[in-house]
Write a structure and sequence with these properties.
Layout (H helix, E strand, L loop, with lengths): L21 H7 L3 E5 L2 E4 L4 E4 L12 H13 L13 H12 L3 E7 L2 H18 L7 E5 L8 H5 L16 E4 L14 H19 L4 E6 L14 H12 L3 E5 L13 H5 L5 E4 L1 H4 L6 E6 H8 L15 H16 L2 H20 L5 E7 L2 E9 L4 E2 L2 H13 L2 E2 L1 E3 L2 E4 L7 H16 L3
Parallel strand pairs: 3-14, 5-6, 5-7, 7-8, 8-9
Antiparallel strand pairs: 1-2, 2-3, 4-10, 9-10, 11-12, 12-13, 12-16, 15-16
Helix pairs in contact: 2-11, 3-11, 6-7, 12-14, 13-14
The protein binds pyridoxal-5'-phosphate.
């Protein structure tokens, strides 16, 4: 009989091993037992509206997805896609291209979002080596960005994580972000913030030498960093700047993509025209771990135009059960027009939060796009000094009491309701969050 708790949880504080019994663990963290639609239930039978992560695109326990996976499981529960294939992987690649953009012509399947970004980085490097520009090894990404946990994707993440492990991949540079709530010093409008950041980006490119830079990675909305919104014009201008220096663009839409931000691809909507598009969370909606990297026609020609091999991949990528799950999830998102629902419900949520919380002394910002929403808390609305750690712990507890599982990080409450969330569930979220916050005054 195990007396100490044996699991290491990701990005989670682990109490000292000596005192860590299973009872101590379960006393501190919620243990979920079942889920249905937008709701999850813990082992005590308490119900929570599940807004913790962008993964459950179509809610939990959806019969259509379960049926598709079960049928696939019974027919072919595994197939390698290394020098073999099965009949769902092509259908899924075609579906993704048709939904995201016909600018893409090939898709690589990874096992998660980090894997999709890692793949994108490798493809870009291989592209430049093939073209005889092997010096182009460096990557630039934005301050506060989160791109994943693998060696490469972790090295282009600028959220204070990489430092824990030493240097990381060499040549990963950080450029400023035109954060609309916390703009760079000296800027006073979205336009001037965008202009400042583009100027800085150009300075970084020219100082490092454009001939050394492979790609700029960008999330159209920074997710983990707190649903950080940037001026829309920034993205087209970023593309123009990178083109000028022959640098590629990787759009990391692991969170924003496939309907979450209201569009199949937000970067497409913004006119970013990336060379690689990375997606994951909503792809299978949490029914199976999977990610994908879609490459532009031009990159396809460079890598495979004369035939070629990508020396990269995993034994389980393109898994047939994952493909069945993804095809079912994407069908639901498409048939039920869930990107439109995300825009509509997202606007209602923002308006509802503004109506009830605008005058709250600690609510510094209420923001979002589609069903990616954030409330940023401050001690003082003028100075924007963040609230302290204990404040967040108390709020999380109060939200629990209201039947809401959100995601509190660094003074910001992130909320990602499923894309098929109902109007009544949105009202529940607005009222529950507002009630909890009124007790925090
Ligand atoms: C924008 C972005 N990129 C990459 C990742 C990494 O995805 P995963 O956790 O599936 O590896 C995340 C995860 O939150 C993300 O938000």
């Amino acid at each position: 009989m195990q007396t100490s708790y044996p699991v290491i949880h990701p990005f989670t504080w682990m109490p000292p091993s000596g005192s860590l019994t299973p009872e101590a663990w379960y006393g501190q963290y919620t243990c979920l037992e079942r889920g249905e639609g937008s709701w999850v239930y813990d082992t005590h039978g308490n119900a929570y509206l599940y807004t913790t992560t962008a993964v459950p695109a179509v809610g939990l326990g959806h019969w259509q997805v379960i049926r598709a996976m079960k049928e696939q499981m019974e027919k072919l529960s595994f197939a390698s896609t290394c020098a073999q294939t099965h009949n769902l992987v092509q259908a899924l690649a075609e579906k993704l291209i048709s939904l995201c953009s016909r600018r893409y012509s090939k898709v690589f399947f990874a096992n998660d979002g980090s894997g999709a970004v890692e793949t994108a980085m490798r493809m870009v490097r291989q592209h430049f080596i093939t073209r005889g520009e092997s010096r182009r090894e460096m990557f630039i990404s934005l301050d506060g960005s989160y791109h994943g946990t693998t060696y490469g994707s972790g090295s282009v993440t600028h959220l204070g994580i990489r430092e824990m492990f030493g240097k990381g991949l060499e040549g990963c540079l950080c450029a400023p972000t035109p954060n609309l709530y916390r703009p760079p010093a000296g800027t006073d409008s979205p336009e001037s913030a965008a202009a400042f950041c583009l100027k800085e980006l150009e300075r970084i490119i020219t100082e490092a030498g454009p001939e050394n830079i492979a790609a700029v990675l960008v999330e159209p909305i920074q997710a983990v960093n707190g649903i950080v919104l940037m001026p829309e014009s920034f993205f087209k201008q970023l593309r123009a700047l990178t083109r000028q220096y022959g640098i590629l663009v990787i759009a990391d839409e692991v969170t924003t993509g496939l309907g979450r931000a209201g569009y199949w691809s937000l970067s497409e909507h913004y006119g970013l025209e990336p060379d690689v598009l990375a997606v994951s969370k909503g792809l299978t909606g949490g029914y199976f771990p999977m990610g994908a990297a879609l490459i532009s026609d031009a990159l396809d020609s460079s890598l495979f135009g004369e035939g070629g091999i990508l020396l990269h991949g995993s034994t389980q990528c393109g898994h047939p059960v994952g493909c069945a799950a993804a095809l079912a999830v994407l069908d639901i998102i498409e048939q039920e027009r869930l990107p439109d629902n995300a825009l509509l419900r997202g606007k209602d949520l923002i308006n509802g939060f503004r109506e009830s919380l605008d005058d709250h002394p600690c609510v510094g910002d209420i923001r979002g796009q589609g069903l990616m929403l954030a409330l940023e808390f401050v001690k003082d609305k003028q100075t924007k000094e963040p609230v302290d750690y204990e404040w967040g712990k108390k709020l999380t507890k109060l939200l629990h009491g209201e039947g809401i599982l959100g995601n509190y990080f660094n003074g910001i409450l992130l909320m990602y309701p499923p894309l098929n969330v109902s109007e009544e569930e949105c009202d529940f979220l607005i009222h529950g969050v507002s009630r909890a916050l009124r007790r925090m005054r």
